[in-house]
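Study this fold:
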Amino acid sequence: MTSPDSQPQIIFSKIGREIQPPVIVDLMARALANPELLSLAAGFTDNAVLPRELVARFAFELTQEGQPDEPLQYGQNQGRTRLRELSCEVIAGHPGEQASAFDSAKMFMTNGSQQALYLAVQALCDFGDIVLVEEPSYFVCLEMLKGLGIRAIGIPCDDAGAIQPEAMEALLRDLDARGERDRVKALYLVSYFCNPSSRSLESDEKRAVAKVLLDGDWQIPVMEDAAYRELYFDTPHAAPSIISMPEFDAFPKLYLGTYTKPFATGLKVGYGYCTHPQWLVKILCIKGHQDFGSAHFNQAIIERVLEEGLYAGHLASIRQHYAHKANVLEAELIAGGLPELGWRWETPKGGLIIWVRAPLETDLRMASDFCQRCIEQGVLYVPGDLCFSSGKPWHCARLASGALPEDRLREAAQRFVAVAKERN
């Protein structure tokens, strides 16, 4: 008889053997478990601006008898038809978009945009394949790729995160020379108020990327993550998505969007818009195996908010709120003297992140003295090395301004600056 402490050996798959717990899960667990540990790490939204009244109103209405397309029942694997139509309208409403470019048949709803990204990559990549990413890039995506046995390779970018076309061209030539052309399966871009750099890709920058790929005959799928697109502070970013740019017509394209960050994270409703019919079919096949349809009730709530024209007003309110929160965090970093210590950052124009860069010799990694001292002092951040495919450089940090109440946000920034002064 096997005792609880002596379990029979399981032979895991290659992924099962190599998979590690995502860092984001650890960061979120720490933030939720210890209220005295002030988290500038987890990119939560602010409880103060969650749409409680809207959710309560439509949750009540949707649970009354006689509802068409019963929201408490299973739904379609691809997602609610009307929500897909309305989501196309949301994207088409941004500057520079061509409304005629969007077709709800190419839209699918998911459990947050992260699931859409996972499904898309799983449909494309085998173990050992390559996905090209910006530097820095969304660290959760980098961890996901690693967990699937996929290699993330960084496109050369300058210090501010802008893509360098000539260096990108040289990288692709090198990959080709090493016999890895067939291994390169996709390009992943975080185009709007990037997590973590908070910068947005300009139209000319996107065109340059398309030209480099076309000139080298790299017609690989291009995935554009727009999770923060609607969280601009003053004006929307003017560059259209790759869906509306003729320079990308030759490429299979996937646009990722979400209602988690701009509406309610707990509802976990995101979406993907895929222009390639066969790729979309494979994505939906995998999704069918996973869940045969994301939560129907949650989708119905979002659908009603959009249908009633209430989404724009909600966004206008939270944009002001998050702009103020970003100003609060930045003001505390400045007032504490961080610039005088040689730290640099760009003032964000949207999103929930400030990307700070310490002097080059500063080590901010998770195991560093700096990070451990921050935890001792009751503040948590995302080490920037997690956001680079190579794990370098080590002198950057991602600070999130969204979740903490204003007084706690100020205190967290002060704790962070105090450690920086200690280590100066």
